[in-house]
Please model this.
Amino acid sequence: MEMSVIDFKAKCTRVFHTIKKERLPVEITRRGKVIAIVQPAPGKDISVRGTQGSHLER
Model:
């Protein structure tokens, strides 16, 4: 999947859930050029909580 940095900023929580579910990387682009790749962590699925829970579980 590929998306612009503006779309990623607007939808980042949803994107993280999609990455976790589908186990596929997302390319973040600026002006059509890839600037980052967000991919699932290796190994077991992880649970990500927001700033109120503020921790990762493996």
